[in-house]
Each structure stands twice: as structure tokens, then as C-alpha cells.
UniProtKB/TrEMBL annotation:
Record-level Gene Ontology MF annotations: GTP binding; GTPase activity
Keywords assigned by UniProt, alphabetized: GTP-binding, Nucleotide-binding
Annotated protein name in UniProt: ADP-ribosylation factor-like protein
A Pfam family of this chain: Gtr1_RagA
């Protein structure tokens, strides 16, 4: 578990690789990036605490550097745990060039005979354009193209923007958790808890916003947990220098809110019925804080949840302790 994992960030110049990495590292700071001159490596030190030694390789992608990567392809691309491939969704003039570059990278992995997981980020899907039909259509076509190129690879897709940190952390969490055996155990634990406690979704996050694990009956519920959870973590962040600690925060959710009604896929529950989201936290020995966020569809069925949550906390805390030991 201690050997360093290599995660590559590739994609055309100006697609946003360095911005993504800085956002992940600096959480809330504002910055201005310059083109990356060649390969830049950065250690993700917070993850070291979780037992994942991770090094991010940022492949600065001006044309002259790209050539070099293929020349030295063995050193650059071999032994990679995940490849994040970033596509600037706002720059459709360069989609073909980007697909070509991706295709070359796939060829390298085929040549090296190495399996790696690809995480494609359609990037710069900023909040003001994310719902536009035009953007959705572009993404659809790109997905078809990319899938046809990477037929034998495991590949997942994310919409990301630096203006919504949760979008970055979701993609990144997927990219690092997929190679952790402990993540599997954690997910099993979360699933068992959800089933026994009538929870529709349960989410485990670290204080630096990584989704360590989750289980849910439907994507919709987990999205809700993520949205509320991230806001909650932001609030917690502002309490850092303050001795006050919020715990067991409960949010009541009414089913007649616009938020729920506007979701077409989920046709739930009687109007007037109440749900709740419960957020609680635990700390492990070296002071890393974790948050459990659960969604209970029917507030009247939450007794077992109350009983089981402390047990889940204990179990997870033991597991995280083992992970970082
Ligand atoms: N609108 C928008 N702009 C972004 C976003 N992410 C990055 N940018 C901007 O895109 C430009 C390029 O970002 P970089 O992170 O430097 O791009 P890069 O992929 O590292 O480029 P190279 O180092 O040349 O390969 C910068 O001006 C960023 O501010 C985003 O989510 N939305
Ligand atoms: Mg860069």
C-alpha cells in the first residue's frame, strides 16, 4: 500500500489540467495558471495520510512536449494507475485534435500491453452552460467517439469545472478509489448499513472532500447527499480555528420542494412526506476527520438509523485506522 501510485493528467494544452490539479490541492484558493512547460509532478500529500501515496503527472501539452512524451513513452506512460484525460468542452474547434491525441495514448497502452483505467473529464462545463442542450449534444457525440477508440479499456466520463469543486472531487475520488482494496470493503460496509437502517443513500467523505465510499438506491439520492455534504463541509471548514464542533446535523427535506419535483427520473413519494439528511463525523488517531452523510427517505422509519449509526462510525473508524497504519 505504501508504493506510490502514478496518476496521469493528459489532454490538449489549455484544456485545464493544471487548473484541476491546483484546485484539488488548494481547495478554495483562486489562481491563474500558465502553460505547463513539459512534465510536472506533484505529490498529493493529504492522500498520503490516507495510505495512498499518489503522484500526479501533469503532462503539459503544447505540441513540442506532446511529441516528446511519445518518444519517451515507456518512461512517461508505463505503470500508471489511472489516466485522467481532459477535454475542453468549450473549444469544439479542437475536438478532433483532442480525440487524435487520446487515440495515440490508447495506442501506447496497447503497445505497452498495460491495462489502466481512463477517466475522461469533459472540462469547463461551467455552471452557466452545463444545462445547455448544445453542450449536452457535444458531450454525447464525444462519448461515442471516445468509446469507439477505447473499446478494450475501462473508461468513465465526468463533467467538470473549476467553478464547482464537487465536480472535480467526484471525478478524482473515482480515479483513486478504484485501485484501493479497502474501498471495496468500505462500500460493503456502507451497503449493509444502508439496508439495515432504511437509508436510501450513505456517503463517506474525508475532510478534504474526497468521496471515500458510497452506497445508494438511486443516483439521485447520492447526488443530494453530495450537494448537502459539500456545503456542510464548507461550513465545517470555517469552524476550523474555532473550538466549536458541529456534529449530528440533521436537515429535514420536504418532498414538495422544487428540487425533488424537478427530477424526472425519480417519481417518489407522497407530497408532504418528510425525508431527512443526517451528517455526522468521526476522527481517527492522526486527526483526520471523516464525514458520514445519509439520506433517509421516510423520516418515520429512522429509528434503526439512529441505533445503527454509532456502530457504523465505529466500524469505519477501525477500518480507516487500519488503512493509514
Ligand atoms: N471557464 C473555465 N476555464 C477554465 C476551467 N479550468 C481551467 N480554465 C482556464 O483554462 C486555461 C488553461 O488552463 P490550464 O490549467 O493552464 O491548462 P493546461 O491543460 O494545464 O494547459 P498546458 O499546461 O498548456 O497543457 C486557464 O486560463 C484557466 O483559467 C474551467 O473549469 N472553466
Ligand atoms: Mg498546465
Amino acid at each position: 500500500m505504501q508504493s506510490k501510485r502514478k496518476i496521469i493528467f493528459a489532454g490538449l494544452d489549455n484544456s485545464g489540467k493544471t487548473s484541476i490539479i491546483i484546485s484539488l490541492q488548494e481547495k478554495f484558493s483562486y489562481f491563474d495558471t500558465k502553460p505547463t512547460l513539459g512534465l510536472s509532478r506533484s505529490k498529493f500529500s493529504t492522500l498520503d495520510c490516507l495510505g495512498f501515496g499518489i503522484v500526479l503527472w501533469d503532462l503539459g501539452a503544447q505540441r513540442k512536449f506532446r511529441k516528446n512524451y511519445f518518444k519517451h513513452r515507456y518512461q512517461v506512460f508505463s505503470n500508471t494507475s489511472s489516466v485522467f484525460y481532459i477535454i475542453d468542452i468549450q473549444d469544439s474547434n479542437r475536438f478532433n485534435e483532442s480525440i487524435e491525441y487520446f487515440s495515440k495514448i490508447i495506442d501506447v497502452y496497447n503497445e505497452l500491453d498495460e491495462k489502466t483505467d481512463f477517466f475522461i473529464c469533459f472540462h469547463k462545463v461551467d455552471p452557466d452552460i452545463s444545462n445547455k442542450r448544445e453542450i449536452q449534444d457535444k458531450i454525447k457525440i464525444l462519448i461515442e467517439n471516445l468509446l469507439s477508440i477505447a473499446q478494450n479499456s475501462r473508461i468513465s466520463f465526468f463533467n467538470t469545472t473549476i467553478y464547482d469543486l464537487s465536480s472535480l472531487f467526484l471525478a478524482f475520488s473515482n480515479g483513486i478509489m478504484h485501485f484501493s482494496p479497502i474501498a471495496l470493503l468500505i462500500n460493503e460496509q456502507l451497503e449493509e448499513f444502508a439496508k439495515l437502517s432504511n437509508s436510501s443513500a450513505v456517503l463517506l467523505m474525508s475532510e478534504d472532500l474526497l468521496v471515500i465510499g458510497n452506497y445508494s438506491m438511486s443516483d439521485y439520492y447520492i447526488d443530494l447527499c453530495e450537494i448537502v455534504g459539500l456545503r456542510f463541509l464548507n461550513v465545517m471548514d470555517s469552524f476550523k480555528s474555532n473550538p466549536v464542533r458541529l456534529d449530528n446535523v440533521i436537515v429535514e427535506v420536504n418532498y414538495d420542494t422544487e428540487l425533488i419535483v424537478s427530477n424526472e427520473n425519480e417519481k417518489p413519494l407522497k407530497r408532504g412526506q418528510k425525508a431527512k439528511i443526517v451528517m455526522t463525523s468521526f476522527k481517527i488517531s492522526n486527526n483526520i476527520q471523516f464525514y458520514i452523510i445519509t439520506f433517509i427517505k421516510n423520516i418515520l422509519m429512522s429509528k434503526s438509523h439512529e441505533d445503527l449509526l454509532p456502530i457504523l462510525k465505529n466500524n469505519l473508524s477501525d477500518m480507516m485506522y487500519l488503512l493509514i497504519k
